[in-house]
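Researcher: Sequence recovery benchmark, item below. Answer with residues only.
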């Protein structure tokens, strides 16, 4: 007979790092039982013997069925933070509210957006994708033709290389986790492996690169190594089970797992096989990194290992001393997350967090840790280590290596200050 585990009193929970961080077993298999009814993370109120009053929702029929689902109106405050350029409302971005979400999948309606000249209105019946250049047989595909090829599905993140760039500034900006880091999202992407289409076209031996071009008014275009195309690139047709949203590339986009978002060209209209990079406007005037010696660093494709705590996080408020769940996200453009460590004392000591399953390659990974907050000032941090042993750097280390003009690929440790009054703010530590 299986014995039910005994509940542990809060004082018996094992501390693994300074300022009240508790062992990750609390979020591993059956570990929640250790939190018990003794006042740990479970905060249910004692119930009376009689059942609660019958709510109004049980007394009248509910709303009728609908053709397309809507979220509860009580969740209407969960919105992306959108910001366009003055005079050019179609140029800008909207950020995923990371602090309001759970798990690892981003709802399609809350996936971040980045547009350089608005979202085009494309008739899928008229849209075509051309493969040409250094190929034996130039090919053109409509959506029906693409849908007949074998489809694959992958849960993977997408991150704009300009994500978190505000933290390059001298003073820490005060925003939510999504306001600072919300140019990252994770979806279940479904599409055709690009390698199949390239093989059908017959890439010539001198072909080493691709030019990918979108059908938007910006004429977005980027150079992509042919090796990446043969590795894991897909022409995505679906996102989270339904057709792509217009702002995320409808009806077809290039998806390059782990590579900076701008290379995942939306509204894809053509792929040209070339012998060398095309050096487009979008990879020379933008999306290049100015180094301390004044030279520009080009083609920094993968997004580096990164993590951040989403709860508690910026602009939130703690509700007095006690036991809390620290939760956040980690990811790496080079593969799987192997470990996430959390600090509650500004990096003086670290404890290992529990990772939610599944832990997937080039996907967001949810981590959790129990924290007994004493009510005193604290600085919360997380640092991720990927399967190759790469460790997320501190802000000081990152800026020292890159210099003040480096704009893209910011992946330093995020620090959240928790004041004695419970207010959470962004700090540099």
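Model:
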């Amino acid at each position: 007979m299986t014995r039910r585990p005994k509940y542990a009193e809060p004082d018996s929970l094992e501390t693994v790092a300074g300022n009240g961080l508790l062992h990750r077993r609390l979020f591993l298999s059956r570990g929640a039982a250790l939190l018990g009814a003794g006042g740990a993370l479970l905060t249910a109120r004692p119930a009376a013997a009689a059942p609660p009053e019958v709510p109004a929702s049980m007394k009248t029929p509910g709303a009728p069925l609908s053709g397309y689902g809507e979220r509860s109106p009580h969740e209407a405050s969960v919105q992306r933070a959108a910001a366009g350029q003055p005079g050019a409302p179609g140029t800008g971005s909207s950020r995923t509210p990371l602090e309001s979400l759970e798990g690892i999948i981003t709802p399609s309606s809350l996936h971040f957006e980045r547009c350089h000249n608005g979202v085009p209105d494309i008739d899928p019946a008229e849209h075509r994708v051309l493969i040409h250049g250094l190929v034996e047989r130039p090919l053109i595909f409509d959506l029906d033709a693409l849908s007949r090829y074998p489809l694959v599905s992958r849960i993977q993140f997408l991150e704009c290389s300009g994500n978190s760039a505000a933290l390059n500034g001298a003073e820490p900006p005060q925003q939510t986790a999504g306001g600072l880091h919300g140019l990252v999202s994770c979806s279940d992407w479904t599409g055709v492996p690009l390698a199949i289409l390239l093989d059908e076209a017959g890439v010539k031996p001198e072909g080493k690169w691709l030019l990918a071009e979108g059908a938007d008014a910006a004429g977005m275009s980027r150079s992509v190594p042919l090796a990446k195309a043969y590795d894991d690139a897909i022409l995505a047709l679906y996102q989270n089970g339904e057709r792509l949203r217009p702002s995320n590339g409808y009806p077809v986009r290039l998806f390059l797992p782990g590579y900076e978002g701008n290379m995942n060209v939306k509204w894809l209209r053509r792929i040209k096989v070339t012998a060398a990079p095309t050096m487009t406007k979008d990879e020379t005037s933008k999306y290049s990194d100015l180094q301390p010696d004044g030279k520009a660093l080009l083609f920094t494709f993968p997004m580096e290992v990164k993590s951040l705590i989403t709860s508690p996080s910026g602009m939130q408020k703690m509700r007095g001393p006690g036991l809390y769940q620290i939760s956040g996200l980690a990811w790496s453009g080079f593969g799987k997350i192997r470990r996430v460590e959390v600090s509650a004392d500004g990096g003086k000591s670290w404890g290992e967090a529990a990772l939610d399953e599944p832990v997937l390659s080039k996907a967001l990974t949810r981590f959790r840790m129990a924290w007994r907050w004493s009510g005193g000032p604290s600085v919360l941090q997380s640092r991720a280590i990927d399967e190759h042993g790469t460790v997320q750097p501190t802000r000081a280390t990152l800026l020292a290596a890159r210099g003040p003009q480096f704009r893209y690929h910011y992946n330093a440790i995020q620090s959240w200050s928790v004041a004695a009054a419970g207010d959470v703010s962004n700090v540099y530590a």
